[in-house]
TrEMBL record:
Compositional bias (Polar residues): 310-322
Keyword Signal recorded: yes
Keywords: Hydrolase, Signal
SUPFAM superfamilies, sorted: (Trans)glycosidases (SSF51445), Carbohydrate binding domain (SSF51055)
Organism expressing this protein natively: Streptomyces caniferus
The protein's name in its UniProt record: Carbohydrate-binding protein
Keyword Ubl conjugation found: no
Domain Chitin-binding type-3: 363-407
Sequence segments annotated as region (Disordered): 303-322
Signal peptide start-end: 1-28
Top-rank taxon, per record: Bacteria
Length: 410
């Protein structure tokens, strides 16, 4: 099994104890949602947040990592469907988000030090919510529980095998991301998928086509150029160049716009398939990313960002150390450098143009390409309208199917 998903129950217990201990102090300022209210961080920090498994792979003390590196944000992994099936969010398929205290405690400790977190949904192992939830709306509702529970300002969709080979599941995931983007203005969304020498493979291209068909643009599309015949920085920057071409051809962007929507997720040290990526490789990729004004620079994972014993781990890959000589958190420090080199930006997605006569309305302007569900509001021709049930492409009016209720002039 990949070291990304080795289950260590002792680590689960240890992390839970850490979370509860943190909750004793950091949760004093709790907003009632299970974790302290987030700090106001620029999107540069969410774009640089490295992955951390808070319940697996011998999680390090996040506060100690922050003290040692200056890091302000972590990408917590992974939110999945329950191992027994269903459309409810869980950590690693075993710990329901709704009743969680352990991860909430870790988040509270990070926020108490001025940091924040994003949550990553999906990953390589386990069953994904896009596979078990019947529709994009149901999938979005499950993820909204995570956003609400932890008051999240950022979310990552890690679309990998076997989910991204399932067209219906990817339709649900992309549709859910679009709904979340609409319902949570300003939320930072990343889409992460496999990397290949061509940028990404057939299923990754299918995912991009799905995003285009749904008119969905996240803050970035990131590839993982490892575990696919890569070795060293040159192979990774070549893949990023190819992926830039894919983004341009799919969405009609120019080169600079494509790079402004492009990210990379690396694996520090020895990869699952025996590739090696050293500190020098990370610096080279960082230089490429900053020179091209890329949108994201992250890695798997903080749990692995420490030296094994012996340093090469006898030529094996581990989920808890890097299998290369290093000092603690060498690779995390590159994320801090990227955050410092990337100024905070406004999310790149442009909201729909307000139709004529819409002045004074506070609800978002109606868009024919947007899916609305019961209770959603939109403004049109100077009036605010509320959807009674699911609809798309039906202009607000008092006629038609009767889906829209006129709430009056703005």
């Amino acid at each position: 099994m990949s070291p990304r998903h080795v289950r260590t129950f002792a680590a689960v217990i240890a992390a839970a104890s850490l979370g509860l201990a943190a909750a004793g102090t950091a949760l004093a300022g709790d907003d009632g949602k299970g974790a302290a209210a987030p700090q106001s961080l620029g999107s540069n920090w969410y774009a640089a947040a490295p992955y951390l498994m808070p319940l697996d792979n011998d999680p390090p003390d996040a506060s100690a990592v922050m003290d040692a590196t200056g890091l302000k944000a972590f990408q917590l992994a992974f939110v999945l469907a329950p191992n027994g099936g269903g459309c409810a969010p869980t950590w690693d398929g075993t710990s329901p988000v709704g009743s969680d205290t352990a991860v909430a405690g870790v988040i509270a400790a990070i926020r108490a030090k001025g940091g924040d977190v994003s949550a990553s949904v999906g990953g390589y192992g386990g069953t994904k919510l896009g596979q078990t939830c019947a529709t994009p709306e149901a999938t979005a509702a499950a993820y909204q529980q995570v956003v609400d529970k932890y008051d999240l300002k950022a979310l990552d969709f890690d679309l990998e095998e076997p989910e991204y080979e399932n067209a219906a599941a990817i339709h649900n995931e992309i549709g859910a991301a679009k709904i979340l983007q609409r319902k949570n203005p300003g939320i930072y969304l990343s889409i992460t998928t496999a990397g290949t020498a061509d940028g990404t493979g057939w299923f990754g291209k299918q995912m991009l086509d799905e995003a285009k068909s749904q008119s969905f643009t996240p803050d970035n599309f990131s590839i993982m150029p490892f575990d696919g015949g890569f070795n060293g920085a040159a192979s990774q920057t070549a893949a990023l160049t190819k992926f830039n071409s894919l983004l341009r051809s799919t969405f009609g962007w120019d080169e600079a716009t494509a790079y402004a929507h492009e990210g990379i997720s690396q694996m520090n040290g020895r990869s699952d398939t025996g590739e090696y990526f050293t500190q020098t490789d990370f610096q080279t990729v960082l230089d490429f990313a900053t020179a091209h004004h890329m949108a994201r620079f992250t890695n798997w994972s903080v749990n692995r960002d420490r030296q094994c014993s012996p340093p090469d781990n006898n030529g094996r890959t581990s989920g808890t150390c890097s299998s290369v000589p290093q000092s603690a958190y060498d690779f995390t420090k590159y994320s801090v450098k990227f955050a410092g080199a990337t100024p905070p930006t406004t999310p790149p997605t442009t909201p729909p143009t307000t139709p004529p006569g819409n002045d004074g309305c506070t609800a978002a302007a109606y868009s024919a390409g947007t899916v609305y569900v019961g209770g959603d509001t939109a403004s049109y021709n100077g009036h605010t309208w509320r959807a009674k049930w699911w609809t798309q492409g039906e202009t607000p009016s008092t006629g038609g199917s009767g889906v829209w209720q006129d709430l009056g002039a703005c």
